[in-house]
Design brief:
The structure is a single chain. The protein is of the alpha/beta class and about 290 residues long. The chain has 11 helices and 10 strands. Helices cover about 40% and strands about 15% of the residues. Strands 5-4-6-7-10 form a 5-stranded parallel sheet. A 3-stranded parallel sheet has the order 2-1-3, with helices on both faces. A two-stranded antiparallel sheet has the order 8-9.
């Protein structure tokens, strides 16, 4: 099989979504004389976090959203962060808020999660929104799991009744993705197995998957012998290895067996940023409808 034949090109999907959102943003502006506005809060100057914030800003520019960054020092107090979030929660021209993680050790992350308005929580950070997802009635879907879901939909990959094996149980990707794929709705209704670092004989599970999602944060964890021929493989991992970005899947080995596969970079990442834009527009429309 030619590798290009089975490659899922996330950038092309993201560009298509971006064009759709640009039109919807223009319609929103015509109705309200406002642009959807996303506020990003970042503490400190971690290079990876700052790079991600720049990518969010570029995504906002692509779809004609307003973007604002609130940069606090790494030594900022919990009270200062809570005060900023309160002001953003109350600001009528701010529709979506993201708090960039990880937070410094002296900040109680749970307290920050609870302080973020669920109506403006466009990455499902607040436990209220995660709880609604767990109950099967979500307001927002977390952006990275939603990107995986969107890729499966747009690539016309049948999920209903299929066995999806997720490698990784984080509250950012693994757990919420399992909840999304279990929803009683079109393009979901999967049978889901969640594996993790303590799973014994991981390969015995991944070989049974019709779809395997790697989200464990371990470079090249999923090897060729761990999947069956024709498996659909979605690689959410982003790991630095010898100055290169690599996924949780050993691409050279697995791409020879997979019927469809996302690369790293250029797979899930670009679509994740567009899901953040989608959620921000959705939040803006709901807030203005009240």
């Amino acid at each position: 099989m030619n590798r290009e034949d089975n490659l899922i090109k996330g950038k092309i999907i993201a560009d298509t979504i971006g064009e759709e959102l640009k039109l919807e943003s223009a319609q929103f502006f015509q109705k309200t004389n406002m642009k959807p506005r996303l506020s990003v809060v970042i503490l400190g100057d971690d290079p990876a976090a700052m790079f991600y914030v720049r990518m969010i800003e570029k995504s906002c520019q692509k779809v004609n959203f307003d973007f604002e960054k609130h940069a606090l020092s790494e030594q900022a107090t919990e009270e200062q962060l809570l005060d900023l979030l309160h002001r953003l929660n109350e600001d009528g021209i701010v529709h979506g808020i993201i708090v960039q993680t990880p937070l410094p050790e002296h900040i109680n992350e749970d307290k920050i999660r609870e302080a973020l308005s669920p109506a403006k929580d466009v990455d499902c950070f607040n436990p209220v929104n995660m709880g609604k997802l767990a109950m099967g009635n979500p307001d927002f879907l977390p952006c990275t799991p939603e990107a995986v879901f969107e890729i499966l939909k747009r690539e016309n990959i049948e999920v209903e009744g299929k066995h999806v094996v997720i490698v990784g149980r984080s509250s950012v990707v693994g757990k919420p993705l399992a909840l999304i794929l279990l929803l009683k709705m079109p393009h979901a209704n999967a049978t889901v197995t969640v594996c993790h670092s303590r799973t014994k004989d991981l390969a015995s599970y991944t070989r049974k998957g019709d779809i395997v999602v790697a989200a464990a944060g371990a470079a090249r964890l999923v090897k060729g012998e761990m999947i069956k021929d024709g498996t659909i493989v979605i690689d959410v991992g982003t790991n630095e290895e010898k100055g290169k970005l690599v996924g949780d899947v050993d691409f050279d080995e697995v791409s020879r067996l997979a019927s469809r596969i996302t690369p790293v970079p250029g797979g899930v990442g670009p679509v994740t940023n567009m899901m953040l834009m989608k959620n921000t527009l959705q939040a803006a429309e709901r807030q203005l409808a009240k």
